[in-house]
Design a protein that fits this description.
Function: Catalyzes the oxidation of 3-carboxy-2-hydroxy-4-methylpentanoate (3-isopropylmalate) to 3-carboxy-4-methyl-2-oxopentanoate. The product decarboxylates to 4-methyl-2 oxopentanoate.
Family: Belongs to the isocitrate and isopropylmalate dehydrogenases family. LeuB type 1 subfamily.
Strand content: 15-25%
Bound molecules: 1,4-dihydronicotinamide adenine dinucleotide, 2-OXO-4-methylpentanoic acid, magnesium ion
Strand order of the largest sheet: 2-1-3-12-11-4-5-10-8-9
Order of helices and strands: EHEHHEHEHEEEHEHEHEHEEHHH
CATH topology of the largest domain: Isopropylmalate Dehydrogenase
Protein name: 3-isopropylmalate dehydrogenase
Number of strands: 12
CATH architecture of the largest domain: 3-Layer(aba) Sandwich
CATH class of the largest domain: Alpha Beta
Keywords: Amino-acid biosynthesis, Branched-chain amino acid biosynthesis, Cytoplasm, Leucine biosynthesis, Magnesium, Manganese, Metal-binding, NAD, Oxidoreductase
Distance between the termini: 24 Å
Radius of gyration: 20 Å
Cofactor: Mn(2+); Mg(2+)
Largest sheet: 10 strands, mixed
Number of helices: 12
Length: 345
């Protein structure tokens, strides 16, 4: 069977790390996993190519794919566009119904030196952040600003909270059976409903231990006690911020992949970071976030665990040898790192 993967390279370092990860996939998968790639435009690339950061043709191609890979979008060139690359990304997520964004923070214990945290704090860190992706402040209407005032709307329906919370409980039940719900229920009405629903749904998962943290305290505990977490579930904005914070426990934002799931359609895999305009086009980007996005795809969409293991083992071997990109304190170019991974396969 030949699987169809739709590739959305996007902007900035997006195309560079996408190509890097696809080179690794091609080298590793020969004779094992058969796929075809279809390239489509999104973000600033969509604006430049067809005047739309979320072209109809892209949505159509994604809807018919077995899986989707996205690099990153955005950059100064399109900041003043009527419809920005970020608007396009949100539209893509909403159109494809990608309600659950899974962001794993897993420290490789043989690469503890890469973490800015003390070894004894970072060692054993392995948690999954489940971020609600198509609700909350990023989508709520009305939304408005002029020179005198501005407002956004934070809105969640019961159904949308139930859906993400159940996904997180299912995941916790399949892991170490601990779920931490992060909210701001001491202040926000949204969070009060969120917390109530978490408590209700917990009745159906007696084997899962549940606790609640306010988002401010959670941001502190993720850094001081990262190993206390197994699955974290939270709303869109909090998850966006906390996952960038969590990523650096592994050494760099450039290490973290994600999987976005819908109820019935294909899943989308993308790094958690943005288009990094400050290093774009310089062969400096860390491609690990995209390589891990590919291995998440192999596991979750195609049950190709052995192939994913093989790619990750080659990456670990290269990083353990000290060959790492600048964000991890090294000097390797993206191309040099990828070549070494391909040789280590
Ligand atoms: N999903 C997406 O496509 C996202 C897009 N963005 C967009 O990206 C653009 C840049 O935003 P920033 O706030 O600068 O966030 P960013 O995540 O692009 O970069 C933050 C910092 O991390 C570094 N970095 C990120 N990924 C890296 C990698 N793979 N290797 C090495 N270093 C890496 C960058 O060089 C920069 O110093 C904006 O237009 C923003 O809206 C931001 C976040 C997510
Ligand atoms: C650019 C935003 C729309 C998204 C973002 O920061 C993210 O998904 O992490
Ligand atoms: Mg973000």
């Amino acid at each position: 069977m030949t699987y169809k993967i739709v590739v959305l390279p996007g902007d900035g370092i997006g195309p560079e790390i996408t190509q890097a990860a696809l080179d690794v996939l091609e080298a590793a998968s020969s004779g094992v996993f058969d796929y075809e790639l279809q390239y489509e435009a999104v973000g600033g690339d969509g604006i430049d190519q067809v005047g739309d950061p979320c072209p109809a043709a892209t949505i159509k191609a994604c809807s018919g794919a077995d899986a989707i890979l996205l690099g990153a979008i955005g950059g100064p060139k399109w900041e003043e566009a009527e419809k920005t690359p970020e608007d396009g990304l949100l539209e893509l997520r909403e159109n494809l119904g990608l309600y659950a964004n899974l962001r794993p923070t897993k420290v490789n214990n043989s690469l503890l030196d890469l973490s800015p945290l003390k070894k004894e704090i970072a060692e054993g860190t392995d948690f999954m952040m489940v971020r609600e992706l198509i609700g909350g402040l990023y989508f709520g209407r009305p939304k408005y600003y002029d020179d005198k005032e501005a407002f956004d709307t934070m809105y969640y329906s019961r159904e949308n909270i139930e859906r993400i919370v159940k996904t997180a409980f299912d995941l916790a039940a399949s892991r170490r059976k601990k779920l931490t719900s992060v909210d701001k229920a001491n202040v926000l009405a949204n969070s009060r409903l969120w917390r109530k629903i978490v408590e209700e749904i917990s009745e159906d998962y007696p084997e899962v231990e549940v606790d609640h943290l306010y988002v401010d305290a959670a941001s502190m505990k993720i850094i001081t006690h990262p190993t206390q977490f197994d699955v974290i579930v939270t709303e869109n904005l909090f998850g966006d911020i906390l996952s960038d914070e969590a990523s650096v426990i592994t050494g760099s934002l450039g290490m973290l992949p994600s999987a976005s799931l819908s109820e019935n359609g294909p899943s989308l895999y993308e790094p958690i970071h943005g288009s990094a305009p400050d290093i774009a086009g310089q062969d400096k980007a860390n491609p690990m976030s995209m390589i891990f996005s590919v291995t998440m795809m192999l596991r979750m969409s195609f049950e190709q665990d052995a192939l994913a293991d093989k790619i990750e083992a080659a990456c670990s071997q290269v990083m353990e040898s000290g060959l790492v990109t600048g964000d991890l304190g090294g000097r390797a170019a993206t191309s040099e790192f990828v070549q070494a991974v391909i040789e280590a396969l």
